[in-house]
Amino acid sequence: MKRILIIEDEKDLAELLAFNLEKEGFAATCAFDGTTGLAAVRSESPDLVVLDLMLPGILGTEVCKAMRKDPVTVRIPVLMVTAKSDEIDRVVGFEVGADDYIVKPFSMRELTLRIKAILRRCEAEQAPTSPMLTLGGITIDTERHRVLSSAEEIDLTSTEFKLLQYLAERRGRVLSRDQLLQDVWSYHEVGDTRTVDTHITRLRSKLGAPGEQIKTVRGFGYKIEEN
Asked: Could you tell me if 137 and 118 lie in one domain?
């Protein structure tokens, strides 16, 4: 049974989410502020964290940052929740390491679909054609989950790593945003194509000059190729 930790300061909402997630077959627990939530992440090691952006004690962004710096919690996926819908909030959420982003108000069906998609993505074990992928200035070690860009190791989130690996294994092919959402994010029904754009922007930034190998195909999607 997958364990979900909900960090949400609206107690009624948190308990309602926990109740509905338990009906879906998950084991759900709640924390009602950032400090308690971060401690719970470290002590419980949940399979996924549903994390509100605006929290008393420690903001959700700071909780996520702390998780990504701790080797014990760095791989735990985070679904960030907020009442805000501005693009800047979504970008900030992804920059601190959130795996996905959902805006209040949302339906339980959408939340459940997103949680299941993230968990499927984390569990998927795709056998790559080679443990080492090299493309221009980028080297991907698929076994050790390490990426070198211009010979320097780059710190990527699990989603960024999978996105880069997916592109590299299909070098030269144009991949639509919908295809990327389906195969990288495991979204078959619910997905926002801006999620792809935000992750691509962040990935290029982290890779530096070699990131320019990720090309935008206007009106369709992306591809990666050697310059």
From this structure: no
**48 with 95, same domain?**
yes
CB atoms inside a 10 Å sphere around CB 195: 21
- pLDDT at site 220: 87
Q: What range defines the domain where residue 174 resides?
A: 132-224
Residue 28 φ then ψ, to 5°? -120, 135
Residue 111: pLDDT band (50, 70, 90) is very high
Instruction: Judge whether residue 190 has pLDDT over 60.
Output: no
Q: How far is CA 83 from CA 35, 45, 77, 139, in A?
A: 20, 26, 20, 39
8 Å CB contact between 9 and 17: no
* Alpha-carbon dihedral sign for residues 68, 71, 77, 79: negative
**Higher-confidence position of 95 and 14:** 14
User: The pTM is what?
Assistant: 0.64
Instruction: Please report the sign of the dihedral spanned by the C-alpha atoms of residue 112, residue 94, residue 103, residue 184.
Output: negative
